[in-house]
Protein 1
Amino acid sequence: MTTHALTCPHPATEAPPLLGEPLALEFVNTHYAVRGSLRDGLGRPDYLAWWLSMCRDRFSTELTDAALAAVDEADVVHFRELRDASRRLIDVRVEGGEPDSRDVAQVNRAGGLGRSWPILLWNPQQPPTVARLGAQGPLLEAQAELAHAVVTLLTAPQADVAACPGPGCVLFFERNPPRRAWCSPGCGNRARAARHYHRHRPAD
Ligand SMILES: [Zn+2]
C-alpha cells in the first residue's frame, strides 16, 4: 500500500474549488477548469486525500489522518467513478436529457457501501456496551455518504441547482439566494470583463 503524507496546501498548483456548496456539488466540482483547461481534483491519491481532509467536517464518518494517509490508487478509481456518474446525473437534472441507467446503478451501488449497525454487548454483571458490525472502513463509508448526498440533491424538489455560465467554467452551484448567477465572484468578474472586451475591441 502506498502511503503519503497529507500535504496542505494542495499538491497541485491550483486546488479544486471549495465553494461551500452542498456536499454533492462540492464533490462533483472536483471536476473543474483552470484558465480553460480541465483538471481532476481527485486524480491522484494525494489529491483525493487532500479533498477529503478539507471536507472531513461534512462527513459523519470519521476520516482520520491515518485513514487519509492510506488512500491509494484503487480509492481514486472508485471515488472518480462515483464522482463522474454523479456529475452526469446532476447535469441531466440541470440541463435536461435522459439519465444513463449505469450512472444510477453506480450511485446506488456506492450508497450501499460500508453499512454498519450498532450491536449490543451485555454480559452479566457488566454494563451494556455497543460495537459496530459490518464496518468496512471509513473510505467506503465516505463513498456511501457522498452517494446519499447525491440522491438527496437529485430528489429534493426545492434544490435549485445551476451550471455556472462563466467563461470556461464547468462548476455547479445552488441558487441560494435565488438570484445568484455565478459559482463565485471570480466567474462573475471574468464574464463582465469578457463582455467589456467584446463590446470595446476594435473592429477588424
Ligand atoms: Zn463559475
Protein 2
Amino acid sequence: MLTFQHLSKTYGSGLLQNTALKDVSADISCGEMVALCGPSGSGKSTLLNLLGLLDTPTQGQIWLDQQPVPTDPAALAQLRCRAIGFIFQRYNLLPVLTALENVEYPLQLLGVAKSERRARAMALLEAVGVGQFAGQRPDQLSGGQQQRVAIARALVKAPPLVIADEPTANLDGVSAAQVIDLMQQLGRDANTTFLIASHDPRLYERCSRLLTLKDGVLVENQPQSLNPARRAG
Ligand SMILES: Nc1ncnc2c1ncn2[C@@H]1O[C@H](COP(=O)(O)OP(=O)(O)OP(=O)(O)O)[C@@H](O)[C@H]1O
Ligand SMILES: [Mg+2]
C-alpha cells in the first residue's frame, strides 16, 4: 500500500546542514496500523511529512498503491487531498468554523455537493461521539472532543492512508485510549492504513508494526503479529 525506499531528508545547507532522515526504507500493507517511535529529534515528523506528501525528500522514492508519487506540485496536492487524512497533536481545526464545518471541509475541497457532505460529516461526528457539539466552534470544546472532531475530519473522505503526528500527546489517559480505539474502529471497515508517530506505549500495543527511528536511521521494523487488539479485530 505504502512503500518508501532510501528516503533521506537534509534541511538547510553549508554549515547549517542537518540530515534528519538517512536512507529509510519500508513496505506497509493495506489496513496496517503502524507506530513510528523514537526519541525526540529522531526524525518521526520529518518522515510523516514526506509520506504525507507535505514535503519532498532530498533522496529516495515513495509509492502509494504501487504508483510512484508524482513530482509535479499540483498533482501531488491533488493526490494528498484525495488519498491522505491528517491528525495532529494540536488538532489544527479551523477556529472560525463549527465542528460540522471543519469535518465538511475536506469534502468541500473534493467538490462533494453540500447536502451529501453535510450528511457524511454529521454521520462521522456521531460515530466519534461528538454529534451534539456539531454547531460549536473548537474553542468551545475540550481537547479530547477537538481530537475526536479532528479524527472525523481525517476519515470523512475515507482516505486509504491516515497520517497522525502524536495524536494523543495532549490528552489524558482515558481520552487517549478512546481516540486510539476510534481510529481503529473507523479504519477497520474501510481497511484504512494508519501511520502514527507517538511516544505513547499504550498506542504501540494496538499497532500491527513498530518502526523505530534513532538519529534519522530506521533501527527497528518489527511486526506485532501476536498483538491481541489486532487479532481480535
Ligand atoms: N524545517 C526544519 N528545518 C531544519 N531542521 C529541521 C526542520 N524540521 C526538523 N528539523 C530537524 O530534523 C531533526 C528531526 O526532527 P523531527 O521533527 O522529525 O523529530 P521528531 O522525531 O518528530 O521529534 P519530536 O518527538 O520532538 O516531535 C531534528 O534535528 C530537527 O531539529
Ligand atoms: Mg515530531
